[in-house]
Amino acid sequence: MFEHVDINALLVNYGYWAVFIGCLLEGETILILGGLAAHQTSLRLVDVILIATLGGMLGDQILFWTGRYFGPRILPRLHRQQATIDRVSGLIERYPMASVFSVRFLYGMRLIGPLVIGASRLSPIRFSAINLLGAAVWATLFVMAGYWAGEALQNLLGNLKPYRLPIFIGVVVIAAVVALVRHHRATVRAARAPSK
Questions:
Q1: Could you tell me the CA-to-CA distances from 15 to 2, 62, 116, 127 in Å, in that order?
Q2: What is the pLDDT of residue 75?
Q3: How far is Cα 40 from Cα 66, in angstroms, rounded to an integer?
């Protein structure tokens, strides 16, 4: 069924857009795939990191400004995310700069975190500067993880061209399973938490 799919052509034509949009929304899976593609020279490593940094930063900037203007109306409606909102709020109070940098690395906080930070009245200039640094570190770490995974797979399997589609599907499936397990654990923890 998939033998006629030209993965290389798809990556060359749409790879950078996929990285940008993926990082604008969430990102880690697409970053690893972008790193694998860079290892296979379908995409340029530096370009993948730069585009991922831009997409990750822009996504968080949009969420920050949404929280700035609409946070007081949006956040009270997110009852299921209350534990995450409280956690981010606590981080901001104790470590405002560190929370901006680290929120993208903490599971379940990537989308809620910038909303809460925006609603907290933190300086937009400070947020932007630290957000850029955090996005650059995040993009570099995950893209390089994909790149090194490509290196390890090539040492194991030799030429990866025949395996590109199975590798792509495998990464997506693993990421989906990890996300489902994390979501299930978070749901169980939220259900066990005492209601206020």
A1: 19, 23, 32, 29
A2: 82
A3: 38
